[in-house]
Each structure stands twice: as structure tokens, then as C-alpha cells.
Design goal:
The protein contains eight helices and twelve strands. By secondary structure, it is α/β, with parallel strands linked by helices. The protein folds into two domains: 250 residues, von Willebrand factor, type A domain (Rossmann fold, 3-Layer(aba) Sandwich), CATH 3.40.50.410; 34 residues, no CATH class. Strands 7-6-3-8-9-12 form a six-stranded mixed β-sheet, with helices on both faces. A hairpin with a 4-residue loop joins β4 and β5. α1 packs across α3, α1 packs across α4 and α6 runs parallel beside α7. The chain is globular, with a radius of gyration of 21 Å.
């Protein structure tokens, strides 16, 4: 549980968020994972231990291409595991992330804040550092630091970011390219976005994945996936804010919408495959604890690979 704020001043908004997350999410994670986050948020290591011949299933990011070229046999680098890790959050705050159920405040952005706040909390309290690069009205970088104050600073910064009313189609390229240049040491990188973006982001994502361990967290809302039969509605583009009137009672229109969604989902899946990055979906209706357990399982599978 987070320490109580000093009695001579009221809690800040960031402290209230962190206290809520400690009570509703972090305590449940402590129970499910026995409080041992060392295996979940432990580094992959940066100290070279040696080289060995490539075996099927090895991580291709560890191939030493110079040695491979000289010996005409594929070799991979092996590392001594580092128990400390730096976690980076690449955060998409474009207009489409403000979509969701306003009545219950389950916007994709609010889910993003809770997810980042929780992971930053459980990561930093083991002595690790966390940093962030935000994409919205420009690109903002928060240098990686450790401690509770850093978590509060991250939550406060997210809270202060403007909700953009209108924007061109999101281009994640600059965010991913910025991360390539800014993150020097091998890190655990979470790219948190709905990936409603201009094509072409898989290339910089692939380049980032060659140097770091990258986990894509895809924000979603069920209302983006299927239309209810609710009669005539006004639909608004979440990025450009352009509006059209549609008849959701028209079966053919709903079928065309479902076909468009299917095509979009297939394109995104292909892009992740090309980038060599596994994506975990995080819905506005998801239980946050279960989502973090899925990430733990993903990292565990990667570590068990021969």
C-alpha cells in the first residue's frame, strides 16, 4: 500500500490515482504472484557471456551477423542475466485513444493511465527505473528514473496531457524512431496504442525490437468492433472528428462495417508479424490484473525458449 500523504497538505490527483491502483490492482497482483516481481520484471541482461551456434527457436535478435558472415555459420550471442531492468513506455495519446464509454469513464486513455501506472509501480518498487515517451501534441520524453516520485511524475504528466479535438491520421513512426535514438541500454519497452494509425509503423517497430524486448499493448473498445442495431446514429471519426449519419438498422451496412473491421484487424496482425512483435490486447472491459498476468506469461514463454 502506498504511504499516506503528509497530513499538512491534500493528496494530489496523481497520489489519489496511485493509491487507488495500489488498493485495487497491485494488492491483487501481490496475492496472485506472491509478491515476487523479480521473475516478471527482471532484465534480460546486457553483459556478453559468449557465442554459440544458432539453434531453431533462438531469438533472431541475438544473431551476431559479423561472426556469422566470417564463419559462414549462424552464431548467436549469449548474455549473463541482469536482475535490474529499465522499462520504457511509448504512449499513443492521439484522439482515437479518447474513445470509450464516457458514462463509466472507461476510455482507452483511462485504461492506458491505469495500465502504465500499475506497471511503473510494480517495476520501480524493485529498484528498477521507468521512463516514457509520449505521442500527442508533439513528442515528450520523461527520462528513466526509479522510485515512487517517478511513478507520480509519470501519472501527473499523463493527466496533464491535452485531449486533442482533431488531428490527421496518427503516424506512430516518429514515436518509434524517437525511442530508437533515445533508449540506449537494452530495455523492456511497452508500446501502448490502439494502432489506429497510418501504415508503415511495422518497420520502425521491427528496428526497435532488434535492440530491445518489445511488448505491444493494443488498446481496444468493443464498440469499435461491432455495430449494434440501434437505428439512425451519428458516427464520428475518432481521429479527424468528421461525422456521418448512418442507419445501423440496415443489415447490409452492418455487414460492410464488420468486413471493414475484419480487414483492419488482418492488416494489423500482418504488421505485427512483420515486425516480429507479439501484441497483447487491452480492452476497456478487461480486468487489468488479468492483462498483466498475460504479459507475465508472455515473458515467461520467451525465457523458456531454448
Amino acid at each position: 500500500m502506498a504511504p499516506a500523504a503528509p497530513s499538512n497538505r491534500p493528496m494530489s490527483a496523481a497520489e489519489r490515482v496511485l493509491l487507488r491502483l495500489d488498493w485495487t490492482v497491485v494488492r491483487r497482483l501481490d496475492g496472485l504472484l506472491q509478491g515476487d516481481y523479480r521473475s516478471l520484471f527482471r532484465g534480460n541482461g546486457v553483459d556478453l557471456a559468449g557465442l554459440r551456434e544458432y539453434q531453431p527457436g533462438d531469438d533472431v535478435r541475438y544473431i551476431d551477423w559479423n561472426v556469422t558472415a566470417r564463419l559462414a555459420t549462424t552464431y548467436v550471442r549469449e548474455y549473463n542475466e541482469d536482475r535490474e531492468i529499465t522499462a520504457w513506455f511509448l504512449l499513443d495519446l492521439s484522439p482515437s485513444v479518447d474513445f470509450g464509454t464516457v458514462a463509466t469513464e472507461r476510455l482507452k486513455r483511462s485504461v492506458l493511465v491505469d495500465f502504465v501506472g500499475t506497471l511503473a509501480r510494480v517495476t520501480s518498487r524493485r529498484g528498477n527505473r521507468v521512463g516514457a515517451i509520449l505521442y500527442g501534441d508533439g513528442i515528450l520524453q520523461l527520462p528513466a528514473k526509479g522510485g515512487r516520485d517517478q511513478v507520480l511524475h509519470l501519472i501527473d504528466t499523463l493527466d496533464r496531457q491535452p485531449h486533442l479535438e482533431r488531428a490527421p491520421l496518427t503516424d506512430l513512426g516518429p514515436l518509434l524512431t524517437k525511442a530508437q535514438h533515445a533508449i540506449r541500454r537494452r530495455s523492456l519497452v511497452f508500446v501502448v496504442s490502439d494502432f489506429i494509425a497510418a501504415p508503415g509503423w511495422e518497420r520502425p517497430l521491427s528496428l526497435l525490437n532488434r535492440r530491445h524486448e518489445v511488448v505491444a499493448v493494443r488498446l481496444q473498445d468493443p464498440r469499435e468492433m461491432a455495430l449494434p442495431n440501434a437505428g439512425t446514429l451519428v458516427m464520428e471519426d475518432s481521429e479527424t472528428r468528421e461525422q456521418i449519419v448512418v442507419d445501423t438498422g440496415n443489415r447490409r451496412f452492418r455487414e460492410r462495417f464488420e468486413a471493414a473491421v475484419k480487414a483492419r484487424e488482418e492488416a494489423v496482425a500482418v504488421a505485427f508479424k512483420r515486425a516480429g512483435v507479439e501484441a497483447i490486447s487491452l480492452s476497456t472491459e478487461d480486468d487489468l490484473v488479468r492483462a498483466i498476468i498475460r504479459i507475465a506469461s508472455l515473458r515467461s514463454r520467451r525465457r523458456r525458449k531454448p
